[in-house]
UniProtKB/TrEMBL annotation:
It holds the Pfam family FAD_binding_3. Transmembrane segments: none annotated. This is FAD-binding domain-containing protein. One of its GO terms (molecular function) is FAD binding. Keywords: Oxidoreductase. Gene3D superfamilies: D-Amino Acid Oxidase, subunit A, domain 2, FAD/NAD(P)-binding domain. Residues 77-426 form the FAD-binding domain. InterPro entries: FAD-bd, FAD/NAD-bd_sf, PheA/TfdB_FAD_monoxygenase.
Amino acid sequence: MYPLIILDELINRCPKLINEIGREQLTQFILNRSHCLLSNSNSVVCSLLEKFSLNTNYDLIKEISSMSMKQNKKNHRTQVEIIDCGPSGLLLGALLFRPSIDSIIIEEQSRSDVESNIRAGVLEQSIIDLLDEIDINERVLKEGIIQRCINIQFNGERISVPITEYTEGKVSTFYSQNLVVQDLIESRLKTNQRLWFDVEYARIERHDKTDDGQRPLIKFRRRNSSKEEFIECDFIAGCDGGASKCCRHSIPKDEIRTIRKSYPYSWLSILVDSPPDGYEVVYSFDKTDGFALQSLRSPTKSRYHLQVSVDDKLEDWPDERIWSQLNKRLTLKDKSWKLNEGAIIHGALFPVRTSMITPMQYKRLFLVGDAAHIVPPITAKGLNVAVKDARILAEAIIDVYDNNKFDKLNNYTDKCLIHISEAEEFATYMTSLLHKLDLSNENNEINEFEEILQRARQQQSQQSSALRRLIAQMFVSLINLENILHC
Ligand SMILES: Cc1cc2nc3c(=O)[nH]c(=O)nc-3n(C[C@H](O)[C@H](O)[C@H](O)COP(=O)(O)OP(=O)(O)OC[C@H]3O[C@@H](n4cnc5c(N)ncnc54)[C@H](O)[C@@H]3O)c2cc1C
């Protein structure tokens, strides 16, 4: 039947072909090649055009090619299709590999781009434990830098929060995101698991298993190739990050809800080619200029953030202005501390916001990490939360294959919400504690009241060691991931 569909299509869409070639010859040509039409109709159509010296009709080739692929959607088969190779997708693949669950990861960027994107860099203890569990912890244990303390300061007066003293041995570790990604990619490729970079136009064609046995289906093309490929799978993990061009957007709008909060300021974030003095992390509130943060990414790199106006552009912030503001906001009243300036290797400006998608699942598609939620960056939780989603999803999928039980999968969103809401709450608390308030409200009483509340919170953290203990514990996370998995 398939060659006849091609023939019909050709006749309907390109009646001139019949005039040029003749119906009989055209039919014979297509029938003779019916065996290879199924594997590569594009080349057959091209050879048809070539053989009969016809003008190349690109649209027609594209359409026929896609028609042929629809007849042959089983180009690739896997159990779990993971859309992207950020930390959450890679970790999910690694967790599934242990009980021999097959996955394919497709990624839009090149390997070198993915491996060089530093972004996050603070890992909670539970993430280190997870890397230990899957035996991908050698480098992080060697090169990661334990975060022993954070400093919080208000208008030049600094208090120290000794994390290791307050958290019964749990710590955070500085280890930049690109190293986590490199370690996971290396381990995946070493074990010959499929991971394809430079993939374009990934689209989810089918989200569910159908009554006639068809499975979820993803279509994509490799860069510089016009050939469409298809992956048939049992489950789709949507790990394609905050922009989530493929996964989140494939869900009908009325099936999910986005809960959002936007703050009336942005962050200017720079990556600097030198470490902060003493590897110190400093959170600073300055009542005139606003928030600043000094953090670490590696023994040789630091990251700084500044609260800036939502209307600001990167060009409004030349290097001299950035360093002058960092110096001003981070300095101590007694001038006993000095900023360690260095070369700025990257700068970005982004709005401070939070968002949560609910539910995080649609049929057999499960959103993971930034594709489902954005946590305000102040507490460095984004990567940690993304990886915890992956852990919860892995556990649920394993339960399906091992025990044919779907309860954990059905409860995926609820389980994730336990740790996501903890991270969101802590980030919201720290954001409101340390940013200069937006006082554009026309009602001055409201402005004054907000300022009184903020001052009260700042005093509490200066005076109460119980509150500092809580802040330290929130940094390494109060909620035990294992408890979520088994609840
Ligand atoms: C400047 C900055 C600093 C940060 N600092 C911290 C920090 O200190 N601590 C912390 O925990 N978090 C931090 N974060 C957040 C953290 O980087 C993210 O939360 C984390 O990367 C989320 O991981 P993910 O796997 O969900 O998504 P991502 O890491 O965003 O990965 C998504 C991947 O999907 C790919 N992709 C997108 N669309 C497609 C498609 N259609 N087809 C195929 N592939 C696709 C992308 O190329 C990308 O590789 C920071 C973020 C930024 C921007």
